[in-house]
Design goal:
Order of helices and strands: HHHHHHEHEEEEEEEEEEE
Number of helices: 7
Radius of gyration: 35 Å
Largest sheet: 10 strands, antiparallel
Shape: elongated
Structural class: alpha+beta
Distance between the termini: 85 Å
Number of domains: 2
Helix content: 40-55%
Strand content: 15-25%
């Protein structure tokens, strides 16, 4: 038998390949849709550049606020700080709006990609269904029938080769279809994430506008109280300081009488690193109180000095839960004793025997009994309560030794609500972060 007897008949091979590949060739993105996607990507890139420029501008305002904060002892320094805060918050609003625009464009781009992939899957699925019938018809021919159909052994073996090639090409197209479906699911997942991000940004935008309004109210209130006179501002600061010291003394005397049982084994050991920082890019501006007791018992605080740490946080900075837990309570001491204590605060109880306090907030975004996860957004930083400048006050307690009380104040007219603790329940936050 000659070698030519084993060659594949050109007509048969050509017809089979044309039928198959005409049906299952990949579907290309229509030119118009591709241009639309490219245009969207170009717009997204432009928005991202604007976002980067705004972030640099906000960082500059942050630096100026840090510098001006040292001048808050003068009326002009305080007014300048409020003006810089307003500019920074306005830039925050613009930044959030740009992020909303960018996410919206991204969602549109993803929707276009989803539509294209669904079209490709539909076309490829239809082609594969037809090809399955072609392959099935070929496979139903028995070996004896195949031998009898062809005039020469060469034609028979040639058909077998074509059939194997057909199977191989079919497998490739099935793999292509599976890849398209995977990409489609990924695009749908990404779209849902972007929609959730968009919703969060819209809420943030609304919150930021509220904080800007509060800044305006604070500025107008300061001008009304001082009549833009430096001596009046000095008197205002002195009165606020005196009230704060009297309130703190009243509170300290009450806490020193608490006799709550605090088992040292009921909470993590110092240095365990169980807590996450409640702000991004943390910078500690004041440490935990330094006393004889705190030096000999570094995990505890005996009532002298600072009962937590302060973290730099310009007004409107997102504050996050340091660990998964349940919101034990929230409150605002300014409603009874303005400028004397924590201002707006949140207390979270954790399952490991620790509780964490977040104070001087401008806006609270959680409620009592709410479950929160580590890093979950709980509010925005501010200057409520006794705060000479914007920051976050962060306290860590042994849960057994802390309570939330409502108590009538001799210093302020009314009943305040806030966390109080047995003095030995105060823990050094730096030993748990």
């Amino acid at each position: 038998m000659k070698d030519s007897d084993f060659s594949i008949p050109k007509g048969l091979l050509l017809s089979l390949l044309i039928v198959f590949f005409a049906q299952v060739l990949p579907i290309h993105i229509p030119l118009v849709e591709a241009q639309n996607i490219d245009e969207l990507q170009s717009k997204i890139s432009a928005k991202n550049k604007e976002i980067a420029d705004l972030e640099r501008e906000i960082a500059e305002y942050q630096g100026q606020l840090t510098s001006v904060g040292k001048q808050a002892t003068t009326l002009q320094g305080a007014l300048k700080a409020l003006e810089l805060t307003r500019k920074k918050l306005t830039a925050d609003i613009t930044l959030t709006q740009k992020k909303i625009d960018s996410v919206t464009l991204t969602i549109e781009s993803l929707k276009g990609q989803i539509k294209d992939k669904e079209g490709q899957i539909g076309d490829l699925s239809g082609a594969l269904e037809k090809s399955i019938r072609e392959v099935r018809n070929a496979d139903e021919t028995s070996l004896l029938e195949a031998v009898l159909i062809y005039d020469t052994l060469g034609e028979f073996w040639g058909n077998q080769v074509v059939r194997e090639e057909l199977h191989g090409a079919f497998k490739d197209k099935v793999a292509e279809l599976q890849k398209l479906k995977t990409n489609l699911n990924n695009s749908k997942t990404e779209t849902e994430k972007k929609r959730q991000e968009l919703q969060s940004l819209k809420i943030q935008l609304s919150d930021q506008r509220k904080i800007v309004e509060a800044n305006k109210v604070e500025t107008n209130k300061l001008l009304a109280q001082t009549k833009n006179v430096e001596s009046n501002y000095k008197k205002l600061l002195a009165d606020r300081k005196a009230k704060r010291e009297a309130f703190q003394l009243e509170l300290s005397n009450y806490e020193s009488q608490l006799k709550l049982i605090v088992d040292p084994g009921s909470f993590p050991h110092p240095g365990s690193g169980v807590l996450a920082w409640p702000v991004d890019n943390p910078l500690v501006t004041q440490l935990f109180g330094d006393t004889d007791f705190s030096r000999t018992h570094p995990q505890a605080y005996n009532g002298s000095g600072h009962n937590g740490i302060d973290l730099r946080a310009s007004p409107g900075t997102p504050i996050k839960a340091a660990l998964t837990g349940v919101v034990w309570g929230t409150g605002d001491t300014d409603t009874v004793c303005p400028g004397a204590s924590y201002g707006k605060w949140v207390l979270i109880k954790h399952a490991n025997g620790l509780s964490t306090l977040y104070a001087h907030l401008s806006l609270i975004k959680v409620g009592e009994g709410q479950n929160v996860g580590t890093g979950e957004f709980i509010g925005y930083s501010g200057t409520t309560g006794y705060a000479t400048g914007p920051h976050l006050h962060f306290t860590v307690y042994a849960t057994d030794g802390v309570q939330i009380i409502s108590r009538k104040s001799r210093i302020c007219s009314g009943t305040y609500t806030l966390p109080v603790a047995d003095l030995k329940a105060y823990l050094n936050p730096m030993l748990y972060l």
